[in-house]
Each structure stands twice: as structure tokens, then as C-alpha cells.
Amino acid sequence: MKILFSKTALSTLLLLIIITFLPIRIFSQELSGKYTIVLHGGAGYISPDISEKIKLAYFKSLSDALELGKIILEEGGTSLDAVEQVVRYFEDDTLFNAGRGAVFTAEGRNELDASIMNGKDLSSDAVTGVKIIKNPISLARLVMEKTPHILFAGKGADYLGLKMEVETVDPSYFKVERRYQQWKMRMKKTEKSDGETVGCVAIDQFGNIAAATSTGGLTGKWAGRVGDSPLISAGTYANNKTCGVSGTGTGELFIKHTVAFHISALMEYKDYSLQKAAEEVINSIMPVGSGGIIAVDKEGNYVFVFNTPSMVRGVATSDGIFEVKIWN
Ligand code: ASP
Fold first, then answer.
1. For the chain, which terminus, N or C, has the lower number of CB atoms within 10 Å?
2. From CA 156, how far away is CA 125, in angstroms rounded?
3. DSSP annotation string for 189-218
């Protein structure tokens, strides 16, 4: 009886030790203290002569979004949460061509695209042509986690959003005056610049990479046109074995050259570094002026490669780097 008691007491004690200390051990083993996050607000042409006020507005938005993602990663949050929250921030900011502030179709409407990918297990999801979803990136995240499918389009995607009870809005919510004027000029063919699509890529302290992209597409796009941003492998890709990528530029060319996956494939199959792979695709394969990418590899290295005059972008790392830029 005495032996039985002490055996029971011993196993209880062991159990207590396991319950108390194992999570701490696992936690401390998994949290590396290292993370990297990069973001973009579109590649294209932003004149270096823009007013100081607009410049500051870009820098403030970029810094605030970056800070938001950085804090999530710093506190041990996942890269998936970080990229979703950063992109959501941009979707709510009228400065960018995503969510509120999206560009107009040829018919003067807003059709929104977004995609998200988890490099840990390659799970991914996207929505295209949504018209009433306030934050398309969060619908993409939700359908990634709750449905067996990968891409939802148009009315079906909006309907899914209603069913999943994400926040919906009247289509007029997305329309902002600046974009409307841009659209009018584009329709008259006097406006050249595109861009301001948004994206974010991060590696968290668990070594997991995630990528997300959101856009209103190209000004004056035909109704129903699908660009690269909602297409996994073209505009967005993440794989813990290689890297995460978010692209911005002429979607048709990103689709044709499977840009995001292409970069990952060069790393996986040809053992290229992230820099070399990204440069090969953006500077050798893609035509000049077609766009750019942001990317992070499994070691936390990051790159910004673009063949346009500007790309709105930023980076924060656990080594203390915190930078936002528009031009070279
Ligand atoms: N890639 C986006 C599209 O073609 C546009 C952009 O990045 O500015 O829809």
C-alpha cells in the first residue's frame, strides 16, 4: 500500500512537471527570436516630385502597417496573422489600391482580389471579383481555414462572405474621389501610373513563412478580368522550404511567367539564392516596366526587386532594421 501510494505520488509529480514545464520547453525551443517582415504598396511610377504631404502620407502608412506586423511577430504571433493584419490595414487605407480606395473597372466599378498562403503546409486561398467584402484578405484567410477549396470568384465569393459573416459593405464604400478622377483620366488615356496594390510576406519566430496580396487590379480593367494577385503561384506564394513572395505589376505578365512560384522553384530546383532567383525572374524574364516583388527566404533574408521606376515598400527585422522606401 505504501509502495502503491508512493508510486502514485511519483507519477502525479511527474505529470505535474510535464504539464508545467513541457509547454515552456516547447515554447522556448520554437521561439527563435528571429523574424522578418516585408511589405509593399505597389510597383509603378510615382513621380519623385510628388508633394511633401503625399510623400509623408505614404511613409506614415507604411511605417504604421510595418509596426503592426512587427509587433505581432515580436510577441511570438504567427506570420499568417502578421501578413493578414498588415494587408487589412492597407485595405482600410484609401491611399492604396486595395479594399477602400481600389481602382475602377472600365465600367466604373470596384472588383477586388486577394490571396493568402501559408508556407508551413502550402494551404492557401483567394477571392476574386468581390464587390461587397470590406476586407477581401480576411475572407481569403477564412475560406482557407474553413473550406476545402482554393479560389472563390465574383458572386459566389461575395455570397460566401455573407454566409461566413465577414463584414460586408455597400459597393459605394470602395469608391474614393481620387481614384474616380484617376479612372476618368485613364479612360481618356492621359493617366499612366498604376500600382498601389498591397502585399506582405513574413517569417515568424517558428520559422513559418506566409504571404498575402490584395488589390483592386488595374485601372480600367474589363469587368470580370482576373489578375495575378488572387492567383497562387502568380502573385502570391509561400513555401517554408524556400521563400514567400508577393508581387505587384501587370498581372497578365505575372500570370504568364508564374512569377511567385518561379522564384521559389529556382531556389528549390537550382539552389539559387533568393536574390539571384528574384533578379532572374524580374530582371531577365519579365519585361522592363512590368512590376516587382517582395520576398523573404527561410533564413529570414529579404529582397525587393522591381523593374519599374518605383515600388512602395518596407522591411522590419528582429535585427533592428526598420525601413520604408518608394524609390531606389
Ligand atoms: N498585379 C495587379 C493586377 O494586375 C496590379 C498591381 O499590382 O498594381 O491586378
1. N
2. 14
3. T--------EEEEEE-TTS-EEEEEEE--S
Ligand 1 cavity residues, CB under 6 Å = 42, 194-195, 197, 215, 217-218, 227-229, 235, 248-251
Whether 197 sits among the annotated catalytic residues: the reply is yes
Q: Domains in the chain and their CATH numbers?
A: 32-327 (3.60.20.30)
**Strand runs labelled E in the chain:** 36-44, 112-118, 123-130, 151-153, 198-203, 209-215, 236-238, 243-249, 291-297, 302-306, 310-317, 322-325
Distance of CA 215 from the midpoint of ligand 1 (Å): 7
Catalytic residue among 36, 78, 128, 197: 197
The tens place of each residue's pLDDT in the chain, 328 residues long, gives 444 445 556 556 555 544 454 444 445 557 999 999 999 999 999 989 999 999 999 999 999 999 999 999 999 999 999 999 999 999 999 999 999 999 999 999 999 999 999 999 999 999 999 999 999 999 999 999 999 999 999 999 999 999 999 999 999 999 999 888 888 887 877 554 567 999 999 999 999 999 999 999 999 999 999 999 999 999 999 999 999 999 999 999 999 999 999 999 999 999 999 999 999 999 999 999 999 999 999 999 999 999 999 999 999 999 999 999 999 8
Distance from residue 310's CA to the centre of ligand 1 (Å) = 14
Select from 197, 259, 290, 312 the residue to mutate for testing ligand 1; criterion: most ligand atoms less than 8 Å from CB.
197
